[in-house]
Amino acid sequence: MLQLDASELVKNGSYINGRWHNSDNTFSVKNPADLQPLADVADAGKTQAEQAVQAASDSFAGWAAKPAAERSALLLDWYQLVMKHQDDLARLMTLEQGKPLAEAKGEIAYGASYLQWFAEEAKRLYGDTIPAPSADKRIIVQRQPVGVVAAITPWNFPNAMLARKAAAALAAGCTFVVKPAHQTPLSALALAELSQQAGIPPGVFNVICGTDAKAIGEVLTQDPRVAKFSFTGSTAVGKVLAKQCADTVKRVSMELGGNAPFIVFDDADLDAAAEGLMASKFRNAGQTCVCANRILVQSSVYDAFIEKFVEKVKLLRIGDGLEKGTDIGPLIDDKALQKVTELTQSALDDGATLLLGGHHHSFGERFFQPTVLGDVTAEMTISQQEIFGPVAAIQQFDTEQDAIELANSTEYGLAAYFYSRDIGRVFRVSQALQFGMVGINEGMVSNAAAPFGGVKQSGYGREGSKYGLDDYTDIKYLCIGGV
Ligand code: ADP
């Protein structure tokens, strides 16, 4: 079992150029389940961020010049080490993030699957030859790494959001600097330790942990040595960072907030839909950007669906993520709890019906009861904001067209879900939904083989899949004359 003070995986400072950064100036990482301190981590700032960018810049030429097979082998070693330590990494994640241990284990395997996937893709960074318009010319297209990549990642998937960016960047031949969320630095630092054990050269992968997100973010978005910036987090922060990147015309990828519709049509398998909604709504206590946020149920099956769904929600067990059988852990911080409480209360004030839960849970300070609200409308605040908590807000609709219009009436466009067994409807609705990812008779869509990303104000760029290297490569065209 993981011993926090003895494990080689528990690190207390940023990882820069293959070395661990220490400082007397520290911040405390706390377990959101019981608010107990877990570790003090050196609080890095602007200077360390600049050092990390320098290290990534210095190591870029050597890393990019390595044969793809060599980069691939190193990524594969990293993957294997992560899987070897899956249990300990999962415990560390549950301790700092709060999610149930089984989910944390799942996330470690999911994050690792990107290391494995891109280890393979590294070898397939193919170019093109193009027939030239004249006989004495040849046209060749090559893909080259963009250079130093900087990233900022959130607390809800402390391992996977980082691994899927780093894996693609390193596979393409880029070097990498990441600032994880200050709530969950330990999972990121453990990944750094394993990158070192895997033999990833100094400077190629750097982790900056600090509480001054603004100062570190300014370096990562404004330093001219950084060629590309990749962000996963809220739309509000993403907009600020995208603007900061403009002055140096960086390549930018943004994976921002969502407001996922989950549509249950009258021809759906209601049991499967209720099951899919459980997975989509309550994973990570509802704290994911692809969680069902607006549940739209056709009027003729509304009562029947709610009955089935509420029965399932009643079975959810709240508790400490380390305890066996826990389904729902704590929310990440007081601000998150306050937001979920306020959104629920305002929906009730505006006429929603409380079908289950609705309040803070007595298990601990940061816990909220799994909650089901009926008679929600599109005008309510809860339908317009990301809930990011274990609250299912259910609306009714009458026709297929109504469902599509309701689903698309948001500035977000990350994930959408719908349940239907009518093949014509499946194609019509998939086509009409303005979202980057659509789950059809499926409540979980993400895996390394598939392109993850959004449209509209949910961002741009795709992570994972054969498309995932595009964000980290530039196309170079060679025109050979005088042939
Ligand atoms: P959340 O509300 O889910 O925490 P945020 O978008 O605030 O989402 O945070 C995602 C990441 O962005 C975290 O690593 C956080 O530290 C970082 N962050 C927040 N504000 C800024 C900022 N002004 N500049 C740079 N990074 C920021």
Bound molecules: adenosine-5'-diphosphate
Which CATH architecture of the largest domain would you pick?
3-Layer(aba) Sandwich
Secondary structure category: alpha/beta
Oligomeric state as shown:
single chain
Put simply, the count of helices is 14
CATH top level of the largest domain is Alpha Beta
Into how many domains do the coordinates divide? 2
| Estimated radius of gyration | 23 Å
Characterise the protein shown here.
This protein has 483 residues and is an alpha/beta fold. The chain has two domains: 272 residues, Aldehyde Dehydrogenase, Chain A, domain 1; 188 residues, Aldehyde Dehydrogenase, Chain A, domain 2. The chain contains 14 helices and 20 strands. The chain has a seven-stranded mixed β-sheet with strand order 14-15-16-13-12-17-18, with helices on both faces. Strands 9-8-7-10-11-19 form a six-stranded mixed β-sheet, sandwiched between helices. A hairpin with a 6-residue loop joins strand 3 and strand 4. It is globular. It starts with 14 loop residues before the first strand and ends with a strand. Adenosine-5'-diphosphate binds next to helix 7 and helix 8.
Write the layout of secondary structure elements.
Blueprint: E1 15-16, E2 19-20, E3 26-30, E4 37-42, H1 46-65, H2 68-84, H3 86-97, H4 101-121, E5 128-130, E6 138-145, E7 148-152, H5 160-172, E8 175-179, H6 185-198, E9 205-207, H7 213-222, E10 226-232, H8 235-246, E11 251-255, E12 260-264, H9 270-282, E13 292-298, H10 299-314, H11 334-349, E14 353-356, E15 371-374, H12 381-384, E16 391-397, H13 400-408, E17 415-419, H14 423-432, E18 437-440, E19 459-460, E20 473-480
Parallel strand pairs: 7-8, 7-10, 8-9, 10-11, 12-13, 12-17, 13-16, 15-16, 17-18
Antiparallel strand pairs: 1-2, 3-4, 5-6, 6-20, 11-19, 14-15
The chain binds adenosine-5'-diphosphate.
